[in-house]
Amino acid sequence: MFGFGKKKTAVLDQRLYTPVMGQVIELEDVSDPVFAGGMMGDGFAVEPTGNEIVAPVSGEVTMVQGHAVGFKRADGLEILLHMGIDTVSLDGSPFKITVSVGDVVQGGDVIATADWAQVDAAGLPKTTMVLITNTADKLASMTMVFQEEAATNAGEEIATAKAK
């Protein structure tokens, strides 16, 4: 049975990818002080203009909530994709996540869709963050390869992150 029942293993890919089409912004420019202050880890943010959400890294899905997906890369870096600010209050209704814990994805694979109109209607920011949550313990360096305030497509390489 050609591959059925076998778990794929993550290959090491040090690149980070834009999770959604939109305008890339510096993490420090995010309206939420917890994210802007780096308390959740180093990373970047996107003001989305598209509805398709893709994996920002290659790795294993470790957590799925209504508004967030966690990943672990083969080198141990842990990445959180957080869709919108304060969207936890919407109980996941704007987001249709198509991956499950244990799935192995490649950077740029489609993992969800977003109905940003619901987020707008709730008066919440759509800002989507990619955060390396174990920055202090595991991140050696992160190098951005985009121009500040650049418009990008979902799945474009935006940075490289190297583990210690």
From TrEMBL:
Signal peptide: none annotated. One of its GO terms (molecular function) is kinase activity. GO terms for biological process: phosphoenolpyruvate-dependent sugar phosphotransferase system. It comes from the Bacteria. GO terms for cellular component: cytoplasm; plasma membrane. Keywords: Kinase, Phosphotransferase system, Sugar transport, Transferase, Transport. The keyword Transferase applies. The keyword Kinase applies. It is found in: Cell membrane; Cytoplasm. It is a multi-pass membrane protein. InterPro entries: Dup_hybrid_motif (IPR011055), PTS_EIIA_1_perm (IPR001127), PTS_EIIA_component (IPR050890). Residues 32-134 form the PTS EIIA type-1 domain. PANTHER family: PTS SYSTEM GLUCOSE-SPECIFIC EIIA COMPONENT. This is PTS sugar transporter subunit IIA.
